[in-house]
Specification:
The structure holds 2 protein chains of 2 kinds. Chain A is mainly alpha-helical. Chain A is built from 12 helices and 2 strands. A two-stranded antiparallel sheet of chain A has the order 1-2. The N and C termini of chain B lie far apart (about 55 Å). In chain B, helix 6 packs parallel to helix 11. By secondary structure, chain B is an all-alpha fold. Chain B contains 11 helices and no strands. Classes of the chains: A mainly alpha, B mainly alpha. At the A-B interface, helix 1, helix 4, helix 5, helix 6 and helix 7 of A face helix 1, helix 3, helix 4, helix 5 and helix 6 of B.
């Protein structure tokens, strides 16, 4: 009897401990995922929810026929590809730098991470002001060093709008990459390095053949997380460019948002968002397969 | 002869080390300038006389330092209200998330749970959902529950999105505390709760501070959900309020930068206090894997 009660307790206690967190997650995240999928097959009317009708594949067909969708898809690829690859590059260089000895190391590491802890709205506003076409400090500095001869409206002209947003995102995202890679570098066993030196490897060879393979798992998971985060991140478009000029900075999540809240077409908005989620799922599946293959080899 | 040779070699190496160290310091200096320059510029803008913002060419240092923009911000805009709303949402989110995540993490770390890998995978998958996919159905649900424009609706949403990562983080911290310690406490007569309260919790406290900071920064900074669910001006949080200044004041950069300086301070202060431990927690999982 007591034994049975004890056993039940052993099973019940962890469930009770897990319940609040799991219930919150399922209610706030799980349930809406189902709802979103349902929305993609319906013509939902926000003002009169009772008049919602089944739409079959209409939302999907309308999405694929919409030229703006394809523009947004291309913009998303440029945005994610550009921002993430530059963050990997500078994050890696930054990590190598932070791994050196310098005065005030810990304080400086903290200071360098501040952009990462800054609200996106503020990041957007600071850069809007610095990039201003009439009074922007960046235009002034570039003109002083002779790189440009007149002020440029960086976020208002089609050719520079998306690249400028990428630069801002890289500015904010590099510290995160640098710190993750730095942690991996610091876990690097000294013996491996010594062995390489004994075998006559030069600095470049040590880096390429030993250190990079060692930090590769960390680099991969950080990159995958960053791809997902960047693909979903639309605050900069929202605040700085409003998707423009034209549709030059309209990415998939931004299109999903505006389709829902400006055109009040919740069904098609959810469809665009779901397509984005499925594309990201492909990235995750590729990552898992890559991990499996590495383990087999 | 050999001694002279060795001494010379040592000297060239010292010179090489010094050049290298100089290079490192210069590179770090440039990075600091790029990372923190925008904040300096924001601060300078906020204390400049307004007219000096709009001159050509750009005037770098203010002719006089004044805090009129801050005064105006507090007296003529609902900025304090935004600040309070943000504080209520962020602190409620921290309280709710930290407690529930610690309970869940304790279960994951100290009990044998059937289906534990599945729970961990579910926790991770929720992190991958695009906010925009969920913002639409959440808006519909919160509206029917009457939770739009209330701090509780937003607190619930922020908590749910912060929970998976926070649970993950705290589970890692708990795993690092030896199980033998709570077992020893139980032998000494503590029950489960007592062992947790008197042995594990004190050891966990510094890590919880780091996890709470992560939650605070997330909630304090979050924009899209806050923008969508807090449509009434009196309910707006700081990011939404700051965003609203753009239209309402035809971009009053003096007010915006003053508001920006004040909005950044809490996160930066918290962050600098706990950043070392937070980074240790963030990276522990990734490096092990």
């Amino acid at each position: 009897m007591t034994l049975g009660l004890n056993r039940m307790k052993r099973h019940l206690v962890p469930l009770i401990l897990l319940a609040p967190a799991l219930i919150t997650i399922v209610v706030v995240i799980g349930f809406p995922i189902g709802r979103a999928v349902w929305l993609t097959f319906h013509d939902y009317n926000v003002l009169r929810p009772a008049r919602t009708t089944f739409a079959g594949l209409d939302n999907y067909l309308a999405t694929f026929r919409d030229p703006v969708f394809w523009t947004a898809l291309r913009n998303s690829l440029v945005w994610v590809g550009g921002a993430v690859s530059l963050q990997i590059l500078f994050g890696f260089l930054g990590a190598l730098l932070l791994n050196q000895r310098f005065a005030g190391r810990y304080l400086i590491r903290g200071l360098l991470l501040i952009p990462w802890a800054t609200p996106s709205v503020l990041v957007a506003l600071m850069w809007m002001w610095m990039l201003d076409g009439n009074y922007g400090v960046i235009n002034d500095m570039l003109r002083h060093v002779g790189l440009i001869d007149r002020y440029i409206p960086w976020v208002a002209q089609p050719a520079t709008a998306l690249p400028t947003l990428i630069v801002i995102d890289v500015w904010q995202g590099v510290p995160f990459f640098a710190v993750m890679i730095l942690a991996a570098l610091q876990a690097f066993p000294k013996e491996l390095e010594d062995a390489a030196v004994v075998d006559g490897a030069n600095v470049a060879q040590q880096l390429w053949f030993i250190k990079i393979p060692f930090i590769l798992p960390t680099l991969l998971i950080t990159t995958v997380l960053r791809i997902i985060w960047t693909a979903n991140y639309m605050d900069l478009m929202f605040i700085i460019t409003n998707g423009g000029p034209g549709f030059r900075t309209t990415t998939l999540p931004f299109l999903a948002y505006t389709t829902s809240y400006r055109r009040l077409d919740f069904g098609q908005g959810a469809t665009v968002a779901l397509i984005q989620a499925l594309l990201l799922a492909v990235v995750i599946v590729l990552y898992i397969r890559l991990l499996r293959r590495r383990q087999v080899v | 002869m050999i001694a002279v040779h060795a001494r010379r070699r040592r000297r060239t190496r010292r010179v090489a080390d010094a050049t290298r160290s100089l290079g490192v310091h210069i590179a770090v200096g440039i990075w600091l300038l790029i990372a923190l320059g925008p904040y300096v510029w924001m601060f300078l803008t906020s204390v400049k006389p307004t007219l000096e913002l709009y001159v050509f060419p750009v005037r770098y240092l203010p002719s006089a330092v004044g805090f009129e923009a801050y005064e105006q911000l507090f007296t003529t805009t609902p900025f304090l209200r935004f600040f309070r709303n943000s504080a209520v949402v962020a602190l409620s989110t921290v309280a709710f998330t930290t407690v529930t995540a610690t309970l869940a993490a304790y279960a994951l770390s100290r009990f044998r749970i059937p289906g534990k890998p599945i729970i961990l995978v579910v926790l991770l998958v929720t992190q991958l959902m695009p906010a925009v996919l969920l913002v639409i159905p959440l808006f519909i649900s919160l509206r029917s529950l009457g939770l739009l424009n209330t701090p509780w609706g937003l607190t619930l949403v922020h908590s749910a999105f912060a929970l998976p990562f926070t649970t993950y983080l705290i589970t890692g911290f708990l795993d690092a505390i030896p199980k033998e310690l709570d077992e020893a406490a139980k032998i000494d007569g503590c029950n489960d709760l007592g062992a947790f309260r008197w042995v594990v919790l004190p050891l966990l406290a510094p890590s919880l501070a780091a996890a709470s900071t992560y939650v605070f920064i997330y909630s304090w900074n979050e924009f899209i959900y806050a923008l969508t669910f807090m449509t009434r001006e009196s309910a707006r949080t700081l990011p939404v309020g700051l965003h609203g200044f753009i239209g309402e004041f035809l971009i009053r950069w003096d007010l915006l930068t003053a508001g920006g300086v004040i909005a950044t301070l809490p996160t930066v202060l918290f962050f600098l206090l706990v950043q070392r431990r937070l980074i240790a927690g963030l990276t522990a999982g990734a490096v092990k894997g």
